[in-house]
């Protein structure tokens, strides 16, 4: 036994076991997040439940079973819930998502299993997804066009889907017009306003310049009026139709079709139809904008903001990190100052991220951004341009946060390159700069990519510093659009990490937001893995490309 321990094999097995346990724990956590998040998109059965209260009154509840749990009878009695005649120690209670927010005080309600006297899943129960007030559960009674019924009992579903498709197409055309051509006109009007203000500050606002700007503004306003009429026409056409629903109160409710996004009959769907609906809902979650204080809709602006900010951060941190590492390893002398710099770089990696956020807010936003506004954008003051949090300051702040990782990784790669290669290149007449550019950096490129991979993995998941230097709950515009200069680095942006925090802890509807927390968390992990796999593939390609230089 003593010989076995001295051979080191127990430590090998312990290390392998620890790695295996860690890997299983990580995969299990990812599986849990994926299950809780992706199950949200699966069409759940809609129940029509009749409940009898202790006083003998009855009511009907329509909704989907959201959760269930075992509760002790003693706990219920202590909370004031009386269940006469029930003798068991525990009972099951069900959490129903009933929707219909404008008519029901709570979207979710708990129902005790002994109180249920009827539980059915009728095939005609429908779920109406709306742009406001969440889902509506009930029976489709009629489809109305300009106040007149246009559907029979046999054709009501076909007519409903046709009218929904028409209304959604019109709403999309209106949104494209508002965000595209109308947005471009508003952008141009604001540019002309700033141009007039700049000429006024410089004392160059002559009558001719004023006339030129006024003519340009009038042309833009004329185009705006035409597009506005077109926008109103789209909205009028979308509001032509309505759907009449009977809810769990037994009352008929008319829902304008322009507020309807989709309609499904989950209880009447086969397995293949449910799979198709599942992937359709995932696609909507990835490509659509959020609604209802981020508790409904998709997360596309957050995905775009996360990827854009990480790519911008990578473009900033890579050259600075490589230059710093090359100087420290190839040019700096081996003295106390160099050692002190290396210690400082390593210590920077341990600074809490929120400290970087405070530094970015104070130095980059207020000092640098405020100075840029004074020098280059005085016409926009007192409204700041770069003197306010934005995507550029977020990228620079995270670049400083991840800079030590890139420096250390690059320097490790440089130290593994044999000195004989440097000496051989110099002996053949190459300068030190040529040796560095043609021999050293290509061979160190896999190490540089490793540092970038670690930097991306950390930056994509950071939230605390971004809350101070650029991220917001809801961004009206993306940092990239069709207006010159196309990349608007002064704009605020949305981020998946902050979206998780906002939905999980700031949401007014906790139960509705809980599945979105899991879904967004899984999406964030997927984005990080995707970015890392891309960087790893580039690193492997570079490693194979420059492998011949090692021999």
UniProtKB/TrEMBL annotation:
Domain of life of the organism encoding this protein: Bacteria
Membership in a protein family: Belongs to the binding-protein-dependent transport system permease family. CysTW subfamily.
Alphabetical list of InterPro entries matching this protein: MetI-like, MetI-like_sf, Phosphate_PstA
Domain ABC transmembrane type-1 positions: 303-535
Subcellular location as annotated: Cell inner membrane; Cell membrane
Protein name: Phosphate transport system permease protein PstA
Coiled-coil residue windows: 184-211
Organism (species): Pseudidiomarina maritima
Transmembrane segments: 12-35, 299-328, 340-366, 386-408, 439-460, 516-538
NCBIfam families cross-referenced by the UniProt entry: 3a0107s02c
A GO MF term: phosphate transmembrane transporter activity
GO biological process: phosphate ion transmembrane transport
GO cellular component terms, A-Z: plasma membrane
Keyword annotations from UniProtKB, A to Z: Cell membrane, Coiled coil, Membrane, Transmembrane, Transmembrane helix, Transport
Membrane topology: Multi-pass membrane protein
UniProt-listed Pfam families: BPD_transp_1
Alphabetical list of PANTHER family matching this protein: PHOSPHATE TRANSPORT SYSTEM PERMEASE PROTEIN PSTA (PTHR43470:SF6), PHOSPHATE TRANSPORT SYSTEM PERMEASE PROTEIN PSTA-RELATED (PTHR43470)
């Amino acid at each position: 036994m003593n010989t076995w321990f001295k051979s080191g094999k127990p430590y090998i097995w312990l290390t392998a076991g620890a790695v295996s346990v860690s890997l299983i724990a990580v995969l299990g956590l990812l599986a849990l997040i994926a299950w809780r998040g992706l199950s949200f998109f699966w069409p759940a059965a809609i129940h029509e439940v009749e409940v009898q209260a202790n006083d003998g009154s009855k009511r009907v509840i329509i909704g989907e079973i959201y959760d269930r749990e075992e509760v002790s009878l003693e706990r219920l009695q202590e909370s004031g819930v009386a269940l006469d005649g029930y003798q068991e120690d525990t009972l099951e209670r069900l959490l129903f998502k009933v929707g219909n927010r404008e008519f029901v005080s709570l979207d979710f309600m708990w129902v005790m299993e002994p109180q249920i006297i009827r539980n059915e899943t009728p095939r005609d129960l429908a779920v109406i997804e709306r742009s406001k007030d969440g889902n509506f559960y009930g029976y489709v009674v009629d489809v109305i066009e300009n106040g007149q019924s246009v559907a029979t009992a046999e054709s009501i579903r076909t007519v409903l889907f046709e009218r929904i498709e028409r209304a959604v197409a019109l709403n999309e055309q209106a949104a494209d017009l508002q965000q595209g051509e109308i947005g471009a006109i508003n952008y141009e009007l604001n540019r002309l306003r700033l141009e007039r203000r700049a000429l006024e500050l410089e004392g160059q606002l002559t009558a001719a310049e004023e006339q030129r700007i006024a003519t340009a503004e009038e042309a833009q306003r004329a185009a705006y009026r035409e597009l506005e009429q077109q926008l109103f026409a789209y909205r009028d056409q979308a509001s032509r139709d309505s759907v009449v629903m009977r809810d769990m109160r037994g009352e008929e409710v008319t829902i304008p079709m322009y507020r309807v996004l989709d309609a499904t009959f989950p209880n009447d769907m086969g397995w293949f139809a449910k799979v198709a609906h599942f992937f359709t809902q995932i696609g909507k979650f990835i490509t659509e904008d959020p609604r209802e204080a981020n508790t409904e809709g998709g997360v596309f602006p957050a995905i775009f903001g996360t990827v854009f900010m990480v790519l911008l951060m990578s473009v900033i941190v890579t050259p600075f990190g490589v230059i710093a590492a090359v100087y420290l390893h190839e040019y700096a002398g081996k003295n106390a100052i160099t050692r002190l710099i290396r210690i400082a770089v390593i210590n920077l990696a341990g600074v809490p991220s929120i400290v970087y956020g405070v530094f970015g807010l104070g130095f980059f936003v207020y000092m640098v951004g405020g100075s840029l506004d004074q020098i280059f954008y005085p016409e926009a003051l007192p409204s700041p341009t770069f003197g306010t949090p934005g995507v550029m300051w977020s990228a620079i702040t995270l670049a400083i946060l991840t800079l030590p990782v890139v420096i250390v990784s690059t320097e490790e790669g440089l130290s593994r390159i044999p000195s004989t290669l440097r000496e051989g290149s110099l002996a053949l007449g190459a300068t030190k700069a040529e040796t560095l550019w043609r021999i050293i950096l290509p061979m160190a490129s896999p190490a540089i990519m490793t540092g970038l991979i670690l930097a991306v993995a950390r930056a994509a998941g950071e939230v605390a510093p971004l809350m101070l230097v650029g991220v917001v709950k809801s961004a009206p515009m993306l940092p990239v659009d069709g207006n010159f200069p196309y990349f608007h680095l002064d704009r605020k942006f949305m981020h998946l990490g902050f979206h998780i925090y906002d939905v999980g802890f700031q949401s007014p509807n906790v139960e509705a937001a809980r599945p979105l927390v899991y879904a967004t968390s899984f999406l964030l992990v997927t984005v990080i893995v995707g970015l890392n796999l891309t960087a790893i593939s580039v690193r492997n390609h570079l490693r194979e490309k420059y492998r011949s230089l090692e021999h």
